[in-house]
Automatic annotation (TrEMBL):
Keyword DNA-binding (UniProt): yes
Gene3D superfamilies per the UniProt record, alphabetical: Tetracycline Repressor, domain 2
Name of the protein: TetR family transcriptional regulator
Annotated source species: Streptomyces pluripotens
Ranges for domain HTH tetR-type: 24-84
Record feature DNA-binding region, as residue ranges: 47-66
Pfam families listed in its UniProt record: TetR_C_25, TetR_N
Domain of life: Bacteria
Keywords: DNA-binding
Molecular functions (GO terms): DNA-binding transcription factor activity; transcription cis-regulatory region binding
Length: 230
């Protein structure tokens, strides 16, 4: 089984290689400029002309590459989902490490790297999810489909237990994960540490791993829940 350090290094290299290659292309520059403006102003308030100015291109070039603002937002969503799923895939590998503490350390390192290299993705996710409406529904839908697929793969690999309701479990876990992004400011004030900082992720990850692997409730006598099913 790969060590937590190797999982962390692999996560860092994947994120770095993807960013370095994509940032050289015009569509990637347009997409990243759109993500930044959507995160700062919201989808409705960021015009094609604003995005073109931020990307250093003409509005017609955006139309050439993406056609419409809605399709550009779709490309931004796909980028955000890909980054999240990359990190979660690496975290799943860390979950198979030799110890819970080792897995938690690896996960904290991965998310710290992702937040440093892909900080705009976090800002974009927070803004879109808080705004709600059609764009948020489309983004959440993509994240849910990807999360369900990832969990299904982990079940096949023997890392995650099977469930009788995979879609609802995927939604439950996704909402838990996204809450740390959306409620970061409030959690930081309450706990004195951001759950998105490296130390915050270490502590958050420890509680998460403990909760997911050991559960919260004591199983009462006579419980009839089938073994291995959640």
């Amino acid at each position: 089984m790969p060590s937590p350090l190797r999982w962390t290094e692999r996560s860092c290299s994947i994120l770095t290689m993807r960013t370095a290659s994509e940032d050289l292309t015009t569509p990637a520059k347009i997409r990243d400029a759109a993500m930044a403006l959507f995160a700062e102003r919201g989808y409705a308030a960021a015009s094609i002309r604003d995005i073109a100015s931020a990307a250093g291109v003409s509005p017609s070039l955006i139309v050439h590459h993406f056609g419409t603002k809605a399709r550009l937002r779709g490309a931004v969503d796909s980028r955000a989902v890909a980054v999240v799923m990359d990190v979660l895939d690496q975290a799943a590998g860390a979950a198979g490490a030799s110890s819970a503490d080792g897995a938690t350390a690896a996960m904290a390192g991965m998310f710290a790297t992702a937040l440093r290299d892909e900080g705009m993705v976090v800002s974009y996710l927070r803004r879109m999810l808080i705004e709600g409406g059609g764009p948020a529904q489309a983004l959440f839908g993509q994240l849910l489909v990807a999360t369900e697929a990832e969990l299904s793969a982990l079940v096949e690999r023997g890392i995650v237990r099977p469930t009788s309701d995979p879609r609802w479990r995927a939604a439950f876990l996704l909402v838990n994960d996204l809450a740390a992004l959306v409620l970061d400011d409030l959690v930081t004030v309450a706990l004195g540490e951001s759950p998105l900082s490296e130390e915050g992720m270490r502590r958050w990850g420890h509680v998460l791993m403990q909760t997911y692997t050991e559960g919260v409730f004591v199983v009462p006598p006579g419980d009839t829940t089938p073994a291995g099913e959640v």
